[in-house]
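>> received
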Amino acid sequence: MLKGGQLPGGDWVKENGVRVSDGTPMCTIMLPDNTYRMYYTAASSPNELGTFSAISADGLTWTKEGVRIENGFNSVVMQLDNGSYRMIFNEGGTPGGTEFVFWFVSATSTDGLTWVREPGIRLEDKGSVPDIIKLPDGRYRIYYCSLPAIQCAISSDNGLTWEKETTSGMPEGVDPDVIMLPDETYRMFYVDPISGGIYSAVSHDGLTWTKEEGVRLTGHFADPDVVELPNGTYRMYYCDPPNILSAKSP
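>> returned
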């Protein structure tokens, strides 16, 4: 996700219109030319989900670019120091009781459009909907859904291997999205699976979390994705099925 420039406020105002139709937002990155690319999950066939992308100059009007990964979904993209990209995403569907067990795999790209899958499993855990932030020391931390609470893991090799971490106060929610604030503390946006609203929590180290009062966005939503805009305000993309909508915060 994009690093925050100032504290996003608690009041979010929904913006009119649909940003992208028939999809769920996963990750939005800023490209070298200051345009935006959004990676989102959508149906790639009647029985499979894939990762698609869309491009935008202003973050409001989006043009679909097509499928990036077949049978790979819930994707998050890491922008590496050498200018290339690594995507961590879910695949699989091995039955696990009444649920499905997804694991995390990866692909690499030099342009963010053409992706080559990497062999092996990056993180074999019962989890989904990852989000990744780069820490000040150069390591990466991944947050992901693993009911009843959100979990996280750390990587020192650009996302090839991950070690699970011990946390405290992690919200019992789904679809985490984490941004780093200017004082190098963290704010997590997540969905309450019962109410469907988008809530938030804060942390000084990314491991010990305190829930914040109130609801950031009321409704029955999924998969918040918060990005910083050039003027220092914030935009949140979220899924109000079946479309991707947005809200602004000062």
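>> DSSP finds no helices and 20 strands in the chain.
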